[in-house]
Design a protein that fits this description.
By secondary structure, the chain is of the alpha/beta class. The chain has 11 helices and 9 strands. It starts with 9 loop residues before the first strand and ends in a 7-residue tail after the last helix.
Length: 267
């Protein structure tokens, strides 16, 4: 489950204003941060609590220790083979509920990746809005190596993010991909020195936390819908969001600050 001793808000001073991000470390050291039902449930609960807390403006998901998520729990999967198929189906539903919660969460979610990022951990990273990864991090979807197909939305994200031949290579051959390669494909925002991903993610959160939260929520929703909506539907949605945000107090703050050549302090 998520580490309770590090599950706290990180306050950052921004031009005299206190904003905050919530680092949420994956903590399953026995299995090198392998994901499982307890983590899926805790992850969803953490997002629900963060959404209700107006002081939390950004969430950062990272791994406890040297790795983000180094492998899957294959022993648990072997045990589930002896049970009714509904057991594994329910487990995957928990994972997918967490993935959907990340995508519909109205605040930015940043992945801070160190070391190995495998299986559902890779799917988790692909679901985040922004990704910071160390230069020595390695990503792999090795499901086919053990006779399995993917879960967690990996195919959904990769099919939209890169040409089909590249997605096919990553998914079918199960080989390793480094951070620099994923950055060149547009899947990683920043590559940093080893051991610095959380620090750099917090700096990125610092920049985000200076922006108007209502606008970030609108942009995240529009981006999420934009891949499937028709142009007419998307234009209608943009109009509705624009009008709503124009009549939010942050718009007056931002417009007046721009005209007065001052720095706005958005709520």
């Amino acid at each position: 489950f998520f580490s309770s001793r590090r599950r706290h808000t990180r306050y950052i001073s921004v031009t005299g204003v206190q904003t905050c991000a919530l680092p949420i470390p994956l903590s399953n050291p026995e299995f090198r941060n392998a994901l499982g039902p307890e983590i899926y449930a805790a992850g969803t609960e953490a997002l629900i609590a963060a959404e209700a807390n107006p002081d939390i403006k950004t969430v950062i998901i990272t791994g406890e220790g040297e790795h983000f998520c180094a492998r899957g729990n294959l022993n648990r999967l072997l045990q589930n083979r002896q049970r009714d198929p509904s057991v594994q189906a329910n487990s995957i539903e928990g994972l997918h509920g967490w993935m959907q919660a990340i995508r519909t969460f109205p605040k930015p979610v940043i992945a801070a990746v160190e070391g190995a990022c495998a299986g559902a951990g890779f799917s988790l990273v692909l679901m985040c809005d922004l990704v910071v990864a160390s230069s020595n991090s390695v990503f792999v979807l090795a499901y086919s190596n053990v006779g399995l197909s993917t879960d967690g939305g990996a195919t959904w994200n990769l099919a939209r993010a890169m040409p089909r031949p590249l997605a096919t290579e990553i998914l079918m051959l199960g080989g390793k991909v480094n951070a620099q390669q994923l950055q060149s494909m547009g899947l990683i925002n920043q590559v940093c020195e080893p051991g610095k991903s959380l620090i750099q993610a917090l700096e990125l959160a610092d920049r985000l936390n200076q922006r108007p939260t209502n606008v970030l929520a609108s942009l995240k929703e529009l981006l999420g819908d934009g891949t499937q909506a028709s142009m007419a539907t998307q234009l209608q949605a943009e109009k509705e969001h624009f009008v709503r945000n124009l009549h939010h107090p942050n718009a007056e703050l931002g417009i007046r600050a721009f005209l007065d050549k001052t720095s706005p302090r958005f709520s």
